């Protein structure tokens, strides 16, 4: 009886019955990753942006400015920067969402063949429903999570590629359960009415538990019977599947949730500092408000006739209250809104530099480095620990059968006639496998004793390779006679089965019930009774087979830490020997694998098989029950007694491959502060889960020491300068408050206030934040200690912040009081008084722009054309806008907005003004220069030393080039340049010329020292020496020394 009531923990799907399945209101196959549409974009995006505290703060300031009794600034001084920031963010979000819409439409509109009313019809993916039967053809993507029903391959097998799911590029095998594998024609599939009862949607890619109810029987379903959305059908002409999960319920979509948002340590510090600045802003507002109340009470009453209070103001206290909010508006630029936008722009630039770095580009795979996030670049410069899995991360995931230990004897090393281990190389000949016509010609092994043992019929060696040829899930394909191709789920299995193949135990084919192996040229077919598959918890896999003689045997392979505890105690001596081999292999960086077997009697196996069947049909906790049943049989394993004594033997032996890769590599990156993925043989899952990716592990050095260090340096310099320039700009208002009766008046023209952080000072600091360097990239790689300041957080911390603030306050004091003192006594050329408010405002503003421009010039360590253009262009823009704003034309058009008519022209025409600007600039900058010169002289840091050595090296190179006589082109000159000053005199003197590498390392970095320098001076000073008195080239000899000195 159909019902829509079901257990919360299970899902039901009936084939070819949409009416039944619709009662459960399952999700459709339409996916949606976009966040907005045309109607919701503006309100939703603005709502999201105002979740940011900074945006809400500036919105609050804008509202305050709309109150006439509070605001002394025009509303556009706040709304222009705010709208600009909101617009930039909205455009970015809209662009991202547009591409998400395009991607969704592209996927949802893909075509799929769906069985409807007894015939196949083309349907868009979005119209596929749970319970539909879908036909897939070769190289097609799987539209939804399917239960495999049948395929064009024998026994319902099919091959899939799961790179989009788990990152593995090797093909995997899936198999339909036998009861449905014969449903290959449309008519029989149209009559199929089986019902699947399974677990609810989840994100576990490697697990599926369900039961098929059909014709009154129950059939267990596992992950091996499913095809997941995102997979691609390969090497299979066609297959049919039943939709179990669709759309957002598929495992692919369940795994594509929002990733954890990561913040850098600088972000966290900046948030704290911004809160402190807000507190400082409130304190300044309170001080000035108190000053306003006192002034109004003591002095302001005398001016009531000329400057009466507003109607709403009835006391000095209330006047001070309004003054507090007015000063909050005026002084808010200590935390300008452009700070956050500028930080994002700089980070974006750093990300592009990583993406464009040709030295991190892998030509072999045509794979560039990729910054998959723009928020963590400076964090790359503060890494203290690097954790790397022993995987393909280091070895490119290329697996090679290297060594093995069988019955206490180690194979794989080659020894010379003296008994010394020989280095593998061109002089050694690999083992000749020509006796085996099915051998893989690409396989290389160097120790001939192992092949001799196989040929001599050693039973332990035969059992070793028999286990390797049987205990696996590899599929074989024979395109031409004798040309075998293996399709393995992991490189480990491929390497081990290939090794067994070359040593005469050739895995030839398999069916769901049999495995055929050619053992030393003889075809042997084993009955496959059970596969106890590998998983990350068990760390082992087993097969149970019946050989042609009828004997049942379990073969197992797995991690040594797991399998050793499951062997029957015997021969301790053998165990100790094998353990020594294990440690030896591990010391060489190889991956160990233990092999063992166990004979089972018929009665025990039948009882165990029944328990396994019951566990596989369990409606819940199926995985745990199966693990318990597997644990029972995978214990007390033994080996053949011959040659093993009473050892706790480790089965036929120990298989060793050079892999270094543990299971799923894609989960650590999101949990780390910074996740780095290597796009190698193992696919793209680790890349998709990472923050940065590249194709070779060696690129990590450049990512950290060059890009990471530079990003940290640039961001720190940017923040220090940004806070400095804004405190220098804003604190002038604070000092002016004491001279204007605390009336919340501004020093600057309102247009200067609006444009200061947007036009006049934004681009130079952006250029420094994007392009600056302290030392060239080569020196960053040569001197890893340069990375240390980032690890110790030395370049931007609370101390550095207060230093920048102190410098900004110092600059503001000089910026206000020097012009104030000068204007108190100065006069114009015509004798008129120079001291008027508008002239003072222009002088202070001009001094400020020049001082901060000079300061950023001093802070810039690496000049580019862009730096020059932005700094000089910003200065030019300031004067151009200043004269335009003070022109007669704008005043005539907008008399109420442009009141400083003609002021710039008249003020800047006075010599006293330019002298004042020059004096202010010198007094502001001179202490900074003095401090930096003292620091360089008394306590230089490593970057200063490296820069100095670079400068000295460059000057010496220029000097040598300048003094080198001209030469014509000649082939013979190559000999002269290739050789340095000889050691003939030293050799003839009988002195010992042999130096240790430590001694060489001591003088190698110096241009001339030790016995070489002494010899050079001796030869140069000799009267008859050619070139006497000239600089010799002996100092560069260490470049030709061994061990890579430079």
UniProtKB/TrEMBL annotation:
Subcellular location: Membrane
Keywords: ATP-binding, Magnesium, Membrane, Metal-binding, Nucleotide-binding, Translocase, Transmembrane, Transmembrane helix
InterPro entries, A to Z: ATPase_P-typ_cyto_dom_N (IPR023299), ATPase_P-typ_P_site (IPR018303), ATPase_P-typ_TM_dom_sf (IPR023298), ATPase_P-typ_transduc_dom_A_sf (IPR008250), P-type_ATPase_IV (IPR006539), P-type_ATPase_N (IPR032631), P_typ_ATPase_c (IPR032630)
P-type ATPase N-terminal domain sequence ranges: 14-79
Residue stretches making up the P-type ATPase C-terminal domain: 687-940
SUPFAM superfamilies per UniProt: Calcium ATPase, transduction domain A, Calcium ATPase, transmembrane domain M, Metal cation-transporting ATPase, ATP-binding domain N
Entry superkingdom: Eukaryota
Residues annotated to bind Mg(2+): 389, 391
ATP-binding among keywords: yes
GO molecular function: ATP binding; magnesium ion binding; phosphatidylcholine flippase activity
PANTHER family: PHOSPHOLIPID-TRANSPORTING ATPASE ID (PTHR24092:SF46), PROBABLE PHOSPHOLIPID-TRANSPORTING ATPASE (PTHR24092)
The protein, known as: Phospholipid-transporting ATPase
High-level lineage: Eukaryota, Metazoa, Chordata, Craniata, Vertebrata
């Amino acid at each position: 009886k159909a019902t829509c009531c079901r257990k919360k923990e299970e899902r039901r799907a009936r084939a070819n019955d949409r009416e039944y399945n619709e009662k459960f209101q399952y999700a459709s196959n339409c996916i949606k990753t976009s966040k907005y549409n045309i109607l919701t974009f503006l309100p939703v995006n603005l709502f999201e942006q105002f979740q940011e505290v900074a945006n809400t703060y500036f919105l609050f300031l804008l509202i305050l400015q709309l109150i006439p009794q509070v605001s002394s600034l025009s509303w556009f001084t706040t709304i222009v920067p705010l709208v600009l920031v909101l617009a930039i963010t909205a455009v970015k979000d809209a662009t991202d969402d547009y591409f998400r819409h395009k991607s969704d439409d592209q996927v949802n509109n893909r075509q799929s063949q769906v069985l409807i009313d007894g015939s196949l019809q083309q349907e868009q993916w979005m119209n596929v429903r749970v319970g539909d039967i879908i036909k897939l053809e070769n190289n097609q993507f799987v539209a939804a999570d399917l239960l495999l029903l049948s395929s064009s391959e024998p026994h319902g097998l099919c091959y899939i590629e799961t790179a989009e799911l788990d990152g593995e590029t090797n093909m995997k095998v899936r198999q339909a359960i036998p009861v449905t594998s014969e449903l290959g024609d449309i008519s029989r599939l149209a009559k199929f009415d089986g019902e699947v009862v399974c677990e609810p949607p989840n994100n576990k890619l490697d697990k599926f538990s369900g039961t098929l109810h059909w014709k009154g029987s129950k059939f267990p379903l596992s992950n091996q019977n499913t095809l997941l959305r995102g997979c691609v059908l390969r090497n299979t002409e066609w297959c049919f599947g039943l939709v179990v999960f669709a759309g957002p319920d598929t495992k692919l979509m369940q795994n594509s949730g929002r990733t954890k948002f990561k913040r850098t340590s600088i972000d966290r510090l900046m948030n704290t500092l911004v809160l402190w600045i807000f507190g400082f802003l409130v304190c300044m507002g309170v001080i000035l408000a108190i000053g306003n109340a006192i002034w109004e009470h003591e002095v302001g009453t005398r001016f009531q006739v000329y400057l009466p209070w507003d109607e709403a103001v009835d006391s000095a206290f209330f006047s001070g209250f309004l003054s507090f909010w007015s000063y909050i508006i005026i002084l808010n630029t200590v935390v300008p809104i452009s700070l956050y936008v500028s930080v994002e722009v700089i980070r974006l630039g750093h990300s592009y530099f990583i993406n464009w770095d040709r030295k991190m580009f892998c030509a072999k795979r045509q794979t560039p480095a990729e910054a998959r996030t723009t928020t963590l670049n400076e964090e790359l410069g503060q890494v203290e620990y690097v954790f790397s899995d022993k995987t393909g991360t280091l070895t490119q995931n290329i697996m090679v059968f290297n060594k093995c230990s069988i019955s206490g004897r180690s194979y794989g090393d080659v020894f010379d006639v003296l008994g010394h281990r020989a280095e593998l190389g061109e002089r050694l000949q690999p083992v000749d496998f020509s006796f085996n016509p099915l051998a893989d010609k690409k396989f290389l092994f160097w120790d001939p004793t192992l092949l001799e043992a196989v040929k001599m019929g050693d039973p332990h060696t035969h059992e070793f390779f028999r286990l390797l040829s049987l205990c696996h899930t590899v599929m074989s394909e024979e395109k031409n006679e004798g040309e075998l191709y293996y399709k393995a789920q992991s490189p480990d299995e491929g390497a081990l089965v290939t090794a067994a193949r070359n040593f005469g135990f050739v895995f030839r084919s398999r069916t769901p019930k049999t495995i055929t192996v050619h053992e030393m040229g003889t075809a042997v077919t084993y009955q496959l009774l059970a596969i106890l598959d590998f998983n990350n918890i068990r760390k082992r896999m087993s097969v149970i087979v019946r050989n042609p003689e009828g004997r049942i045997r379990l073969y197992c392979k797995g991690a040594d830490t797991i399998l050793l505890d499951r062997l029957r105690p015997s021969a301790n001596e053998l165990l100790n020997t094998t353990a020594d081999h294990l440690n030896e292999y591990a010391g060489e960086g190889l991956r160990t694998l233990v092999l063992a077997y166990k004979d089972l009697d018929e009665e025990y196996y039948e009882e165990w098989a029944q328990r396994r069947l019951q566990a596989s049909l369990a409606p819940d906790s199926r995985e745990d029950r199966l693990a318990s049943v597997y644990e029972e049989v995978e214990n007390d394993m033994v080996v053949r007694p011959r040659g093993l004594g009473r050892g706790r033997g480790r089965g036929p032996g120990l298989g060793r491959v050079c892999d270094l890769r543990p299971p799923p590599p894609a989960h650590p990156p999101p949990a780390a502060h910074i996740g780095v993925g290597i796009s190698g043989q193992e696919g793209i899952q680790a890349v998709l889960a990472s923050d940065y990716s590249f194709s070779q592990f060696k690129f990590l050095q450049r990512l950290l020491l060059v890009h990471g260090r530079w990003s940290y340096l640039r961001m720190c310099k940017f923040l220090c300068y940004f806070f400095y320039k804004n405190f220098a700009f804003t604190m002038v208002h604070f000092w002016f408050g004491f001279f204007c009766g605390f009336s919340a008046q501004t020093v600057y023209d309102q247009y200067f206030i609006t444009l200061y952080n947007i036009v006049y000072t934004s681009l130079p600091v952006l250029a420094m934040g994007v392009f600056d360097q302290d030392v060239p990239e080569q020196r960053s790689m040569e001197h890893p200690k340069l990375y240390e300041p980032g690890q110790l957080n030395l370049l931007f911390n609370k101390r550095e912040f207060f230093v920048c603030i102190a410098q900004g306050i110092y600059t503001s004091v000089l910026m206000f009081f020097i012009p104030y003192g000068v204007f108190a006594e100065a006069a114009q050329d015509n004798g008129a008084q120079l001291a008027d408010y508008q002239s003072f405002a222009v002088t202070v503003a001009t001094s400020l722009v020049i001082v901060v421009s000079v300061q950023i010039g001093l802070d810039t360590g690496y000049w580019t054309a862009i730096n020059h253009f932005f700094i000089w262009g910003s200065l030019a823009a300031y004067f151009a806008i200043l004269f335009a704003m003070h022109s007669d034309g704008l005043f005539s058009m907008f008399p109420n907005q442009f009141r400083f008519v003609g002021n710039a022209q008249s003020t800047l025409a006075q010599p006293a003004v330019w002298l004042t600007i020059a004096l202010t600039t010198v007094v502001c900058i001179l202490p900074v220069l003095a401090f930096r010169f003292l620091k360089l002289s008394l306590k230089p840091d490593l970057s200063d030393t490296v820069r100095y050595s670079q400068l000295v090296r460059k000057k010496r190179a220029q000097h040598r080039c300048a003094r080198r006589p001209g030469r014509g082109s000649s082939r013979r000159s190559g000999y002269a340049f290739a050789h340095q000053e000889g050691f003939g005199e030293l050799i003839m003197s009988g002195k010992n010329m042999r130096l240790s590498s430590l001694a060489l390392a001591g003088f190698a970095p110096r241009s001339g020292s030790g016995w070489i320098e002494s010899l050079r001076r001796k030869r140069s000073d000799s009267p008859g020496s050619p070139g006497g008195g000239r600089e010799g080239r002996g100092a560069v000899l260490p470049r030709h020394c061994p061990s890579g000195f430079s």
